[in-house]
Automatic annotation (TrEMBL):
Protein name from the UniProt record: Peptidoglycan DD-metalloendopeptidase family protein
Lineage, broadest ranks: Bacteria, Bacillati, Actinomycetota, Actinomycetes, Micrococcales
Source organism of the structure: Phycicoccus sonneratiae
Superkingdom: Bacteria
Residue ranges that the Swiss-Prot or TrEMBL entry lists as coiled coil: 59-114, 203-258
Keywords, alphabetical: Coiled coil, Signal
Chain ranges of the M23ase beta-sheet core domain: 323-420
Region (Disordered): 270-298
Composition bias type Gly residues, residue spans: 280-292
Xref: Gene3D superfamilies: 6.10.250.3150, Glucose Permease (Domain IIA) (2.70.70.10)
Length: 428
């Protein structure tokens, strides 16, 4: 497998930003994306516990949601600001409309009063004429006794009639203006009513937008708290996992000393036998590990596929290059595990981070002390002694630091890790 870039960030400090933003991604899509990432990482998490993997997944899940939550808050705040501005404008327009309506009402009252006054004067004038049984020019002229009196009376009649005509015209104009003012006031009242409704709707939108912004901020703060908790859980589990990893390294060092000593003893014994019986040569395998095909070892499981090969890789959680010390076979928990070759069981039991573990010493092969290990087992069926090639020794599992069911198979040369491919036959 190729190396993966580091994916884990420290605890995120939540800072509320200024307005703008796209819609938040679907949480379901985010969860599925995280699940795919975790599945892709499993091949690289061979020395990682399921608890750490879960803490890592939880941390990544909240980290993936934080940008969308911040965007939602920014968008909600922008909407609240826009709604407040719209509400302020609508309120201002309503105030102007009410002021126009008030002024129009004053103008209408004034015009109504003027029309009433004009009508009163005209009524008084008509009553006076009626009481005087007419006021025609001929009546005035006939009632005069002198020529000068006749002329004066005729001029007076013209003046009175002129005043009467102007009063009628003014009254007509005032009546038309009154009608126009009434129409204008009706239009202003309709406008005021419309703006009153618009202002109320704008206020409701502004209140809803502010509530949405408040909820978005609360959601972000809750997510930030979850993020902090997830990060703390991840850090605590990472510390525990590294402690487990250290125990695996200590177990490997202990086993290395044992196997190196056994290999040295086997070589010394082989040399002594060669001296006693020169014709036999210095052949190998004190553990019955003669090869079949082109390899010394057989496949330890009869199903599954190789999910991870031996080699260096960048660990996505520990954040350093480390050796994947064996070969992983992707099999279900409870799959039978067989001895890869004949040999002596020198360890069968709990191996710390390795979980349930079996170690078989195959003796000298090709001049080195060869051993194989079977790790993360759910159950062990051999406790020690000699085993034959293909003999059932255990069942696969996910004990120790393991993210899922599989068999972690290792080969050791004089106690040091080696690539299993070197020892397995071509069909493995």
């Amino acid at each position: 497998m190729g190396a993966l870039a580091a994916l884990v960030c420290a605890v995120v400090t939540v800072t509320v930003a200024a307005p703008s933003a796209p819609a938040a991604p679907d949480p379901g899509d985010q969860k599925r994306s995280v699940d795919r990432k975790i599945d892709a990482l499993k091949d690289h998490l061979d020395d990682t516990s399921a608890a750490l993997s879960k803490a890592y997944s939880s941390l990544k899940d909240t980290q993936d949601k934080l940008p969308a939550a911040r965007d939602a808050l920014e968008k909600a705040r922008a909407a609240a600001v826009a709604a407040d501005q719209a509400e302020a404008e609508a309120t201002q327009q309503l105030e102007v409309a009410k002021a126009n309506e008030t002024k129009a009402q004053g103008d209408l009252a004034k015009a109504t009063k003027e029309v009433a006054t004009g009508r009163k004067r005209l009524a008084q004038f008509a009553a006076q004429i009626y009481q005087q049984q007419g006021f025609g020019q001929l009546d005035v002229a006939l009632s005069s006794t002198e020529p000068q009196d006749f002329a004066d009376r005729l001029a007076m009649v013209d003046t009175v009639l002129d005043v009467q005509n102007r009063t009628m015209e003014r009254l007509s104009t005032e009546q038309a203006g009154l009608t126009a003012l009434e129409d204008h006031l009706s239009a202003l009242r309709v406008d005021s009513d419309r703006k009153q409704k618009a202002a109320a709707a704008a206020l409701a939108r502004a209140q809803a937008a502010r509530q949405a912004a408040t909820k978005a901020q609360a959601d972000l703060e809750a997510l930030a708290a979850t993020q902090t908790k997830a990060a703390k859980g991840y850090e605590d589990q990472l510390a525990a996992d590294k402690k487990q990893l250290a125990s695996m390294q200590a177990e490997a060092a202990r086993l290395r000393k044992i196997l190196a000593a056994r290999a040295a003893a086997a070589r010394a014994k082989a040399a002594a036998e060669a001296k006693k019986h020169p014709k036999n040569g210095g052949g190998g395998g004190g553990g019955g590990g003669s090869s079949t095909g082109s390899g010394v070892l057989s496949r330890p499981v009869r199903s599954g596929w190789v999910s991870s090969e031996y080699g260096m890789r960048f660990h996505p959680i520990y954040h350093y290059w480390k050796l994947h010390s064996g070969r992983d076979y992707a099999v279900n928990c409870g799959t039978p595990v067989y001895a890869a070759a004949g040999g002596t069981v020198i360890s069968a039991g709990w191996g710390g981070g390795y979980g349930n573990r079996v170690v078989i010493d195959h003796g000298l092969e090709r001049g080195v002390g060869l051993a194989s290990t079977y790790n993360h087992l759910s159950r062990i069926v051999v406790g020690g002694g000699h085993v034959s090639r293909g003999q059932l020794i255990a069942y696969s599992g996910t004990t120790g630091t393991s993210t899922g069911c599989h068999l972690h198979f290792e080969t050791l040369e004089n106690g040091n890790f080696a690539n299993p491919r070197k020892w397995l036959n071509t069909l493995s």
